[in-house]
Write a structure and sequence with these properties.
This protein is α+β, with helices and mostly antiparallel strands. It has one domain. Helices cover 31% and strands 11% of the residues. It has helices at residues 15-65, 92-96, 98-102, 110-114, 127-133, 160-165, and strands at residues 137-139, 182-186, 188-191, 196-199, 219-224, 229-233. A four-stranded antiparallel sheet has the order 1-2-5-6, with helices on one face. Strands 3-4 form a two-stranded antiparallel ribbon. A hairpin with a 4-residue loop joins strand 3 (188-191) and strand 4. It is elongated and about 110 Å long.
Length: 254
Amino acid sequence: MKTRPAAKKASAFTLVELLVVTAIIAVLAAFAFPALANSGKRARQAAEMAAGRSVAAGLQTYVTENNGAVLPGFHVRPGEIVTDGHNNPITGQSAKRYPWRLAPYLGYDVDTAFLASGQKIANAAQREYLISLVPSLGMNTTYIGGDERKSPNPFNPRLADSFAARGGITRMMQANRPSQLIAFVSAAYNDSRMGGDQPGYFGVEYPDRNVDFRHAGGRALVVFVDGHTELLDREQLKNEQLWKNLPDPNYAMQ
């Protein structure tokens, strides 16, 4: 009677082979993780650039529909009713910040325009407040549209000329260099409770207060008054001519 040959034992990996495989995986991971990280950064940059185009278009629409007036940086005009797009009124500081007053001119697509930088809004009850407080792009409220908290207050008729003399505009026709005048910039705020800088803030100031240089090469997305966008670094944003409506192109900082 024929006997079956004994089954061969399955060969196991040796320790050396396991170490080689582990090393190969580690090398591949070292190449893959930076690529994935860069891919995520590029996606966030693309999302914020889309937000910049949206906000720029909304600003231009506001100007057109308000007889040339520029959206106030921090102020609610007399008689102005601010809502969330569902007839729910927005009041107080949330109404004075720019996002909800610009929202009607964006078709209330607030997620695209204001939440492009990874902001986390876990609490739906705070959505109205947080969208007003931490939009991806901060507005140059000191000089564009005006800020009632700062002097001179352009909403006081007696101080409007002083505001303009210091480089502020409340009407588009006042802009001497709209293609070189900053309206919005990538923004962030510092929150020690959250471990440092967090994306988004409603206002930015010359030269880099609340500005976030979060994009490739340490640059921030800038939306100019004429609607075009650029990525600028910290040194470029130290140019005061980009922040103020200065009539003399040869103006030099004092």
